[in-house]
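Onboarding guide, step 5: your first structure request.
Type a short instruction followed by the sequence, for example:

Predict the 3D structure of this protein.
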Amino acid sequence: KYTAVIEYITSLTKQGRPILVGTTSVEISELLSKILTRGSIKHKVLNAKLHQKEADIVAEAGEASVVTIATNMAGRGTDIKLGEGIDDLGGLLVLGTERHESRRTDRQLRGRCARQGDPGMSKFFIALEDNLMRLFASAGPISKMLEKSFGEDDVLEGGSLNWAIENAQKKVEQQNYSIRKRLLQYDDVLNRQREIVYDLRNDVIHDETPRRVLFELVEVELVSRLEGVVDAKGGLAEEFDSFLSSWMNVTFPVSVKVDECGGKSFDGLKDHLLERISDAYEAKASLEDPEGIAGLERYVVIHPIDVHWQDHLTEMEDLRRSVGLRGYGQKNPLNEYKSEAFVYFEEMMGSVRSDVCTGMFRSSTSSQSLENMLSVLSRGAKLEGPSDDSPAPDL
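The system replies with structure tokens like these:
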């Protein structure tokens, strides 16, 4: 094929006709350049490596006997102006060394000639060893041609050959369309999760009272943990004592006893524990800088979201790469991805809520405020809100 291309270029350059050689990759453009150099044919190469010079090279591509080698991306968007007398020779010749996988790309290459009323012509040289022909056009008319006896340098032409090439391109386009469609389906799963996370993040950023969002997350985390140790009627499981000692009283500076939790319904117990947490937080807030408490509350919520969301994106990318192997087990990879993504997201949101609960009493607007709170706790006291009929204690 390349021998035929060089012979064709040589014959046309002797006539003075300019030629634009289109290639599918930088490697092929450099290979053609070496072949042309061996044949002592002057030429210029456009492969998007010389950005500053390529505009000048394209501007001269329409002059007499000029040979220009270009990749798909090189020199696009620039009209090639024909030199004096080139119209009489037939204008610019666009020579394609291979059919692209997309018919649209072929049309773009053809469109580099005969622009703005100028004459021009396009011609493609194709070999049966090209990837497109080898992978997608091995059946049908092509296979019948292969059965015939012909030499390696023989030229194959005919309408059935053009049909086979276009049919091969259609197969590639359909395959690429299926890949893009499946990619969008995968992206849709992650996009829904992204909307939830960013809605939560924007709420706490723009809300004038970020404490509301903070306690919503605390309530959800508290309910999820209570569901494992309390039944719907308020019955306490054996694990409830461990729940108080290992999470409730450790995460929040409160001292909840088992005795005060018995006999309450599930909602009643939830409201009671939330009230104890709220009272403790009000006492902590009274020690903080009033102007900085809102910013602190935003940070307590946003920081865990940012950290865990980044880790979640990495896990989702790893999942997408590995889930395709489940097709060998007769499972739909997309359905498997959706179910696993839901589990990952629930775990991520649980980690975010847990960090919010842990951080709300372990952060402060200033070192002095933190020292005051630690001083109260070091005396064995708990952060409890003042009653309605008594003044706040001197902390």
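Each response can be followed by summary notes, for example: The radius of gyration is 36 Å.
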